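Hi R.,

Here's the chain you asked about this morning:
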Amino acid sequence: MAASFVTLFQWRLNSMLLHENEILLGVKDQIKSLISQLDAAGSFTGDVGMILGRESGHGSWASELRGMLRQAEDFVDDFVIRAYGQTEKNRKDSIAEFGKELQNINSRISEILNRRPPVETPMMLEEIQQFLRSNFVYDEEKETDLVSCMLNYINLPYDLRLSLLFCRVFLGRYGESIDGLVRVLVAAGLVQEKPGELMEDKAKENIDKLISLGMIEELEDHWDHFKAPSPYFELSLGVMKAEDFFMSTANSDSMVTPTARHVSIHDADNTIPNTNSFLHSLFVSAKDGLSEASSDCLRNVLHNSKLLRVLDLKNTQLESLPDEVGKLVHLRYLSVRHSKMNELPESISNLRNLQTLDIYRSGCEFELSNGVLNLAQLRHLMMYRPMNDGEVRVPQGISRLRNLQTLEGIYAGGGIAKELGFMTQLRSLKVRCVSDDHADELYFSVMKLSMLRKLSLTVERGRKRGSYMYENSFFPCLESFSPPPLLQTLELVGRLIEMPLWLGSMENLTKLYMCYSHLSENPTTILQFLPNLKYLQMFKAYKGNRMDKEFFRAGGFPKL
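And here is the predicted structure, written out as tokens:
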């Protein structure tokens, strides 16, 4: 993966120039010189040789370059951690030393590049077969599929190769969302950052390419979720083992190799293993939750893994996060989905680079503290608590988070509805517990969000016989609403008096979910004319007993 390391290190340096300008003023020239030096490396086939186990001079050279780039990246990340914990005088000294070391790194990379051997001859089919037979039980029919998959993998650009492997680390195999994968790829640094462009768009573009090539598949019965087809799912394990960069295991007792940068432990039994200090991504899930002792293990892991960028602890049922999480300067992605936490540690406010915070289905009493307002780089905030209407209350001033693209599970009362109108970068918004006291202001704010692609509105449930029910909970004054023009996905959960006429004008709508609408009129009289509607899901949305021929008229639903 030497070629991939060159690309990733370049992206890392360019990202530093964009975001760490305050501490890099004195070393910008050295960084730009190093980027130019890496440009000169060009393309080479060292990655393939290392995967297939070639013992050529080119493979040895590529291995040396990879080791050098790993050390360089770790040095750069460690410098950022030290610089933000220093006084101004000590920081100046550190920056001077950093500049000297950058020159040293530049010289060492130049020396390695000067020893680059001639380009290897194209690989032979026998090499691929040998690789597969050393990693899989021989099966002639299966091997034919794997050879084809291996050739497809090798011919991918570097970023798509890494994205495909990350599907395996992130996925396990089933049930992860495409949007979630997009956020992980961005946070892990596997997408090039360019001024004026959203990295999420580039990550989604890469995923769409992998889907078009058949390397990952969308789940037909679950919106926006994906799986890895069997040949690529199995092949990725062999490639990970050969490259020793990604590690995926179902055993908490497995040893994490010193060179692994991205580790996934799925279906962990009861604890978290010790990890190396250079870890960039850690995914842990547990069927039955982790033991109480695992909290101490996690504290040690976070203390030792200061370079972490992605920390995914979903389905672990943890009741708290240790304060050490606030010392992870590079952390960009934090998920405690399906936990028992009712609060996050105050140290969370120190995570100056955090992009994604996923607290979906956390504790029943969960509320966000004011510390979240310090997360200036936050782009995605997913919330839900398993009680009442699932709404999570956020502190006033949430509109200060001007980089937010995703805001899900929010309660819009108490003045929050008005603030939403200032969050013009929002692309996905899910509002729960919509009620009369703030509905007008909420609709007015949403109509200002010209970038919005996904909208979910859930009405406040009425209480009946000790239970919360939607049957008698009507959407307030929905007829006054007009959807943003780019909206593609719409969810409406609650009772409607009649079908909103504005639904018929949503030309970009591709997905519609209507739940508990209890409409007396046939909703398709409006919906059938939507030109781009591909997915329609209705649950207790129509009082009719069955769908007769008039429900689907000839020529209606052209893309459903």
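One quick note: Residues 1 and 47 are 4 Å apart (CA to CA).

Cheers,
M.
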